[in-house]
Amino acid sequence: MKGELRSPKAKTPRVVAVRLITTPADVRVGTRALRKLCPTIKRVHDLVGDPAPRRHSPGFAGLARVVVGQQLSEASARAIWSRTEVAVDPFDAATLLAMDIAALRTAGLSQGKIRTLRAAAEAVVSGGLSFDARVPLDDLRANLLAISGIGPWTADIYTLFCLGHADGFAAGDLALQVAVQRAFALAERPSAVELEALAERWRPWRGVAALLLWSFYAKRNRG
After folding, report:
1. Which of 145, 162, 179 represents a domain boundary (last residue)?
2. Which of 65, 116, 66, 121 lies closest to 94 in space, CA to CA?
3. Which among 27, 90, 93, 154 could disulfide-bond with 124, CB atoms 3.0 to 4.6 Å apart, if both were Cys?
């Protein structure tokens, strides 16, 4: 994760009507639509039922939490995030930028993640990053990817879990790839590019499809 601290040249955000997942009722609307779109997802839904919405805090704190969790186990991510929340008080972009690097390292953050968090904070302070959930998904994703250290997985998880975009989808997520391999009885785990193409059939409810597939993955691993 190389790159200097810089504010990305973000596109001026458009604001449109965006479908969001905020309640169990929203998930039910999505599952009903998906059952008609895809027989495989229908079978997955029959097995796991309606998944619960997953929502984290939006804004800078939510993005920081996703960055902290990159390439870590759930337990490690939770522990480091708890220490980071205590260290950065109040948890906002300006406070993080004012902090000493050593204090952030004490929380357990790697040098690379500190660079990413500071680059994101710079973008927020400069006005180059919008956290408005009404901004179209493609615009949000492009502005996040313009930040040094933020890749597709982080951008996709943020738009789905923190902003609740119903069509958010993390094709690079390992658990989703494994779940799709099992659900579709594929010989090999699909790549991110292959999964992105396969998931086109689930628009505009790819986010609900992801929740169903994560539930399917968890159930299979427990069983």
Report:
1. 162
2. 121
3. 93
